[in-house]
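Reviewer 2 asked us to include a model.

Predict the structure of this chain.
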Amino acid sequence: LESGYTLDGQPASSLADLESRLRERVAGTAAPRVLVQATARVPYGRVVAALDVAQAVGADAALLPRLQTQR
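Predicted model (structure tokens):
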């Protein structure tokens, strides 16, 4: 089951997988930054969880405007 989270366009199998991969990505980076973006259909709590993961791995996290979805 796909979690709905991605890192650089690659699906993460879970929030824990996202955290692990993000931790590897920012390791050794002096001032890592993570940009989080979602569609309007994504529940706010899932967006906050992604921001929390980014901060947990030591990155400065920012929320970008929501992506527009086609109807």
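The chain has two helices and four strands. Helices lie at 15-26, 44-56. We have added this to the supplementary material.
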